[in-house]
Amino acid sequence: MVKFKIPFQRFSKFFLKPIPHLTSTNCIGIDVGTSSIKIVELSKIGARVKLENYGETSILTLYKNPFRTFEKNTLLLSSSDIGKIISAILEEAAIRTKTAIFTIPDFSTFFTNIELPQMSKKELPNAVNFAAPQYIPLPLSEVVLDWQLIEGKAGGRSKTKLKILLVAVPHEVINQYRKIAEITKLETKFLEAEAFALLRSLTKTDKITIGLVEIGAQSATCSIVDSGVLKSSHSLNIAGNEMTQSLAKTFSLSYKDAEKLKKKRGISPLLKEVQEQEEDKAAKVILFSVDSILVEVQRIFNNFSRSGKKEVQKVILAGGSAQLPGIREYFSSVLKKEVEIINPFVNIFYPPILEETLKEISPGYAIALGAALRGLE
Ligand SMILES: Nc1ncnc2c1ncn2[C@@H]1O[C@H](COP(=O)(O)OP(=O)(O)OP(=O)(O)O)[C@@H](O)[C@H]1O
Ligand SMILES: [Mg+2]
Description:
single chain, about 375 residues, alpha/beta, Nucleotidyltransferase, domain 5, 5-stranded mixed beta sheet, 9 helices, 13 strands, binds adenosine-5'-triphosphate, binds magnesium ion
């Protein structure tokens, strides 16, 4: 029997339609990334979740410039182009399922932790709304706000403070996804922040504190998950693209060739005693970006342990860049913690022939998979 142990968190306000009932037993999860659009289709028969289809379209083959870039912490994407690409993928893969969950990138989602004094459950919603403007960099009228109590008990007798995870998504971003859904004729009842989809792809979260580091092409996200509950999430502006761009610049290579060089040996030459000089040089260039991510990750872990008196016990790497050769070992040696690469397909049924392929590509599919799982709940 397939069993997911994660206590799912529901952020219900991002629904595109008011009633979130899904009757279909098939669902597709769609992750619109900077380097590719990934789609995972799952089906559920009883308690058994099966992989029906998966695939991606690399945008390198379609565009010179990524259609998702940083600007005022929001998305700059061409909804109509994305819609057309998704429709083409669905047609090519003969996916007939119409129910889809899209994920909203973490860099256009504001995650903040706030602390409030002890109060009753009834008072809490107003208090959160009252405090929110101090923490959200956009006017409240421009965002959809949601929140969850992550520590403390409202209406409790003790004077312990209440810790809240506040999540805000700009209306503009939600509208862009609404357009994509219209173009693709997909039935998209709600959207989900990437961090929550990723959390659902974790298979063992019980009673430990996990540092979840997702490294994509344009951005990385460092989240802390304590006993299956998302405590905090931070988006970082460094990821795989920067590694490739530095290699291209240093060795005067095309972007394509620099990608190849990055994927071939990554930073593993630096972990070995005997190093070939050229590879060593390339690895050092890549390492510069990896170290910049690690500095931020360490800072986030330290802040968490200082404020909550809890240490991150284990680190899980996800995202396409988690496949960088040597990254797991390097993270482990610097952070002095157990480091694992996410394996989101572990509780999913799929043809055995896919075993090796899925193992290889799975870190990049964790978000799309988590979104599809949400649709099956
Ligand atoms: N084997 C590999 N070794 C090193 N890097 C890899 C490997 N495979 C993929 N990558 C890198 O992973 C990145 C893509 O990851 P992913 O698909 O998670 O990003 P994305 O979702 O498109 O981007 P973002 O989330 O930042 O918008 C690219 O930078 C790519 O070069
Ligand atoms: Mg991504």
